[in-house]
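Now read these lines:
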Amino acid sequence: MTMNIPAPSLNDLGEFVRLNASFFDTDEKDCISQYMKNTTEKYSNGKYWLKGQLEKLPDDTIMQRDIDEAIAIDNRRMAEYGGPCNSLEAASIAHHNKKFTNMQKVLEKYYQLMEHEYLRPPEKGVDKGGLYYQQLAETTLIGK
């Protein structure tokens, strides 16, 4: 039995951060806003780029393989082209790196909070607990 926490999309993360704002710092909230804003820019055709490298739509799920692929693309391009050629390019790279680091923090908190919710025991007279707790209660002696 696994928890099967669904991988979020950018849209899911936007809503999740909004509903759980107290768990996220300003940089983490800003990174989601910036990625969302990227999807509305004329040049983007409704897309955004993880780490400035991997093209995604806002409803595409963000999985660990996407994070790994964005890093691999970035490393490959850095090896092919070398470092930034001017301060503007250096600033752009730094911006994408910061935004990407904050996206990773948001994803980590998303999975932590979702795991907590999935394992949440029931509140008497209110609900049956988190989804995984309910599955465990059906197949084990937990909560009995």
